[in-house]
UniProtKB/TrEMBL annotation, chain A:
One of its GO terms (molecular function) is glutathione transferase activity. GO terms for cellular component: cytosol. This is Glutathione S-transferase. Its main location: cytoplasm. Belongs to the GST superfamily.
From TrEMBL, chain B:
Residues 86-209 form the GST C-terminal domain. It comes from Castanea mollissima (Chinese chestnut). SUPFAM superfamilies: GST C-terminal domain-like (SSF47616), Thioredoxin-like (SSF52833). This is glutathione transferase. Residues 2-81 form the GST N-terminal domain. Gene3D superfamilies: 1.20.1050.10, Glutaredoxin (3.40.30.10). Pfam families: GST_C, GST_N. GO terms for cellular component: cytoplasm.
Length: 219, 223
């Protein structure tokens, strides 16, 4: 039976990018549907009535929501190729912990930087550097968070790379100067075809964020 | 032989999830009770990022974050599975456990710590969230079906802590008319043998949370 896979997404969403990378890694064919988040489709509202958010993966008519849950789902269904999570339970728990840390921390603090100014922004920057310092500590000397190969934690974090230019410009700092190991790691990930093909251009994201800031009255 | 230690406090609902999971699977472990106002150096060593309980240490290796600990337990000890086998059902279970922690718990906690108009608004949000949860029980005894599973353990706090908070605030969030299925689930879950033998003493919980509510409500005048 042919699999029908549909992804409801929004091109600059880091969460959507995670799913796109996972699908690409597994070589899964799917239909991509771009959502206008200011005018959500009836399909999105039907498939994710609780949160009304993207990404949503619809597999043979059944929706899966929340990006890290979707990625795990993809790994479990298409389990015959390109594993995204380790097989050992402790290593899996370790990977889930750090992906969850990225989820809990990185989006909110990044958002703080590009949506606020003055003291709030400075506080956001301080927090941002602390969080990325912690991530650099976890990365250590490994080429990837997953060790020798690109894995679940790498996948959960790399989409934020497409937002670095926007965050550092509006945050008035230099990402490479502040978090050199993370930038080096990101460039290593960009050597991977699925990642390079999925991540949108940093300049495009920067322009998008600029438009959002205008709407929030920040420019 | 496997060495298993659980760091917890007497009251935290998050550690209870781990206690239940281990007990349901018949796994032996040692318990270390922490005083969160004076955390042990071991706890800080095992959970340097969040410095919280519960922490499960298996053969010297720490596991943190209660829902992640549950997944680890389920993958390591296969008897009495907590998560379903089907990937779509697993994804659904993970979704509801996350919704519980991210939204339901927070919205119910807001009811507990607020008063006046703020509390009234918090009640609306909390009951909206509880409504979504209620519908998940349609045609089922437990969220997992006939037996207790991952989502039941994740929502376990609804079966004891909630009534403690309701009693202290004088607010009924889960009334039998509005939430018949949740009300029945609470009875079934709270009364299940493995579950009920682990409940912390109710009078101690009342004292603890009474004091906590006073701290929160004294910060602002009632509206």
């Amino acid at each position: 039976m042919a699999d029908e896979v549909v992804l409801l997404d929004f091109w600059p969403s880091m969460f959507g990018m995670r799913v796109r990378i996972a699908l690409a890694e597994k070589g899964i064919e799917y239909e991509y549907k771009e959502e206008d988040l200011r005018n959500k489709s009836p399909l999105l509202l039907e498939m994710n009535p609780i949160h009304k958010k993207i990404p949503v993966l619809i597999h043979n008519g059944k929706p899966v929501c929340e990006s890290l849950i979707i990625v795990q789902y993809i790994d479990e269904v298409w389990n015959d190729r390109s594993p995204l999570l380790p097989t050992d339970p402790y290593q899996r728990a370790h990977a889930r912990f750090w992906a969850d840390y990225v989820d809990k921390k990185v989006y909110e603090v990044s958002r703080k930087i590009w949506t606020t100014k003055g003291e709030e922004k400075e506080a956001g920057k301080k927090e941002f550097f602390e969080i990325f310092k912690t991530l650099e500590g976890e990365l250590g000397d490994k080429p990837y968070f997953g060790g020798e190969t690109f894995g679940f934690v790498d996948l959960s974090l790399i989409p934020f790379y497409s937002w670095f230019h926007a965050i550092e410009t509006f945050g008035e700092f230099n990402m490479e100067a502040e978090c050199p190991k993370i930038v080096a790691w990101a460039k290593r990930c960009l050597q991977i075809e699925t990642v390079a093909k999925t991540l949108p251009d940093q300049k495009k994201v920067y322009e998008f964020v600029g438009q959002m800031r205008k709407r929030f009255g920040l420019e | 032989m496997a060495e298993l230690k659980l760091f917890r406090t007497w009251s935290t609902p998050f550690a209870l999830r781990v206690v239940w999971a281990l007990n349901l699977k018949g796994i032996q472990y040692d318990t270390i009770f922490e005083d969160l106002s004076n955390k042990s150096s071991l706890l800080l060593q095992y959970n340097p990022i969040y410095k919280k309980v519960p922490v499960l240490v298996h053969n010297g290796k720490p596991l943190v974050e209660s829902l992640l600990i549950l997944e680890y337990i389920d993958e390591t000890w296969k008897q009495t599975p907590l998560l379903p086998e089907d990937p779509s059902e697993r994804a659904t279970a993970r979704f509801w456990a996350k919704f519980g922690d991210d939204k339901v718990l927070l919205s119910v906690w807001n009811v507990f710590i607020k008063q006046g108009k703020d509390q009234e608004e918090a009640i609306v949000t909390a009951q909206e969230n509880l409504g979504f949860v209620e519908r998940q029980l349609t045609g089922k005894k437990f969220f997992n079906g006939e037996t207790i599973g991952f989502v039941d353990l994740a929502f376990g706090w609804l079966a004891n802590l909630l009534s403690v908070w309701e009693e202290i605030c004088g607010v009924t969030l889960i009334d039998h008319e509005k939430f018949p299925m949740l009300s029945e689930w609470i009875q079934n879950f709270a009364g299940a043998p493995i579950i009920k033998e682990s409940w912390p003493p109710r009078d101690k919980l009342i004292t603890k949370y009474q004091a906590l509510r006073e701290v929160y409500t004294s910060k602002e005048a009632p509206k």
